[in-house]
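INFO  loader      accepted 1 record
INFO  loader      residues=330
INFO  predictor   begin
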Amino acid sequence: MINSAIVVLNWNDWRNTIDCLESIYQNDGNFDVFLIDNGSNFENIQRISDWHNGKLLSNRKFIKPKIKNYNKLIFMHLKDNIFNKKKNMRNLYIFRNQKNLGLTSGLNQAYSFLIRNKYDYILRIDNDFIIPKDYFKKITKTIKPKDIASASPKIMHAYIKKSVWFKGFKMQWSYLKFQRTMNLKKKRYFDNQNLNKIIETDAISGCCSIYKSYILKKSGLGDEDFFYGPEDIELSYRLKKYGRLVCNQKIKTFHKIGRSSSIAKKEDRIFETTYGFLILIKKIGTLTDKLFGYSFFIIRGLYYFFFLKNHEKKQGYFKALKFFFERNEK
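INFO  predictor   done
INFO  writer      dumping tokens
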């Protein structure tokens, strides 16, 4: 039997988390769910426990559960083990961190645990996702061929009707040279009958993805230089050495984009996003990418200095530039 694990990360966002968990457990199949709590307050854990005990309902706007289709809630430590006879029981395992380690470090804790405990498939589903009831069956079938290392579904905007957020990714020549971080006015793609294939992609969308654990072990886990984003593009760069990356556009998932952003301060989000893309250029970019990419960030910084009125955004951006170039000046 294939052992499958679904990883969900939570940080002070129990509302989205229980919606996500509810949608996961509407799926049939043999799997376990591992919730990594990144230093949330006690209320978050209590609310998730209340949901599991039937005392709290998920948001019926997104998910209308037909059955209570989950097993036990179990608090675990990273040094614990799960033996084969206990796997695929549809349990919800919770690991608690004392502080927010960041998305990549939190996920790596789960990945390391699952690889050590010999799970075959590792599915990552971020807590602001709603997945359909046939997701598990279809995405595990997608990754089954030996030549496929990782896969993502088609991802829709949960709040913009028929708008596609991810349909596969093509690394354009300009991507690392002229990166537009936090661009909320980017071109929208609307779902249509042509977006109904399994296609190769230059990168999976980490926020909703599946991996073969032995390949993840070979490629190395997420790079913890990224607190969050765009760690999935860097990881994809390594995964491609061991197999194809695909997007199954026949599977439609829903991403509540931006709904969890209010939890973190805007200055912090801008800092991490800016710094993350600078790190990405450094790690996978060519010399030309670095020349143009770094210059573009500096020129945009000059524009922000003179014209940007949003103080938090300006502060976060300049802190990221300063931090990056001071750490990489040698």
